[in-house]
């Protein structure tokens, strides 16, 4: 697997610095995208929860995807996590974000599945700094990611493209997954800061 060159990192950092998000339709090399998709299909996926306390039925009104956390247990996962570690270093060196670690899960949306508009982090209540979503297959209809600004105005809808990556500031951009009309596979992840949360447990898992 070849990592992006120095100039490629520029094409990530410059737009991110200007707008707080960046969309890279061809981030992952094709062999790694296929290996990850195959790996996802071996994993026991479970109905995703929104919060620890939320009841399952309530969760289902908000999101319908099935997920499995990556734990570096396969070569594909190791390669992906190594690449994201490089990305973490670049963000830390160039944007001084103080990112401390990365967690991510596979997600499968089947036809009709969605994730209602939400923020991945609430100010002061989470140590999630950056959200990343890597798409493992291309979807031509339905299943777009809609990204909104701080005034709740639509910025853009992104149609999942195999190997594509979006990165955005977790506290700043509400977003939603529009109902899928065919299977949609991705890896959603979060770069985190090592905050002390005054006894609050980070609500990520
Ligand atoms: O899959 C996507 O495009 C976004 C998923 C998402 O918002 C999340 O898992 O928090
Ligand atoms: Fe999200």
UniProtKB/TrEMBL annotation:
Q: Name one Pfam family in it.
A: 2OG-FeII_Oxy_3
Name of protein = Prolyl 4-hydroxylase alpha subunit
Q: Where is the Fe2OG dioxygenase domain?
A: 95-193
Which parts pass through the membrane? none
GO molecular function annotations of the record: ferrous iron binding; L-ascorbic acid binding; peptidyl-proline dioxygenase activity
Cofactor(s) demanded: L-ascorbate
One example of a Gene Ontology biological process annotation: cellular response to hypoxia
> What is the protein's species of origin?
Alishewanella aestuarii B11
Task: Provide the alphabetized UniProt keywords.
Answer: Dioxygenase, Iron, Metal-binding, Oxidoreductase, Vitamin C
Instruction: Output the InterPro entries linked to this UniProt entry.
Output: HIF_prolyl_hydroxylases, Oxoglu/Fe-dep_dioxygenase_dom, Pro_4_hyd_alph, Pro_4_hyd_alph_FE2OG_OXY
Could you name the domain of life of the organism this protein comes from? Bacteria
């Amino acid at each position: 697997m070849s990592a992006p060159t120095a100039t490629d990192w520029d094409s990530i950092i410059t737009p991110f610095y200007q707008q707080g998000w960046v969309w890279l339709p061809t981030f992952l090399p094709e062999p790694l995208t296929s290996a990850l998709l195959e790996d996802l299909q071996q994993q026991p996926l479970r109905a995703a929860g929104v919060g620890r306390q939320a009841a399952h039925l309530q969760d289902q009104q908000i999101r319908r995807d099935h997920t499995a956390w990556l734990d570096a247990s396969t070569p594909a996962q190791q390669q992906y996590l190594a690449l994201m570690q490089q990305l973490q270093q670049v963000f830390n060196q160039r944007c001084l974000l103080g990112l401390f670690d990365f967690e991510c899960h596979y997600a499968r949306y089947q036809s009709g599945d969605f994730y209602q508009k939400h923020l991945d982090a609430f100010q002061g209540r989470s140590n999630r700094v950056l959200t990343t979503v890597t798409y493992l297959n291309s979807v031509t209809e339905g299943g777009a990611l809609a990204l909104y600004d701080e005034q709740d105005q639509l910025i853009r809808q992104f149609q999942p493209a195999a190997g594509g990556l979006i990165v955005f500031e977790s506290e700043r951009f509400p977003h939603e997954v529009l109902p899928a009309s065919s299977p949609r596979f991705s890896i959603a992840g979060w770069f985190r800061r090592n905050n002390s949360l005054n006894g609050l447990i980070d609500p990520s898992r």
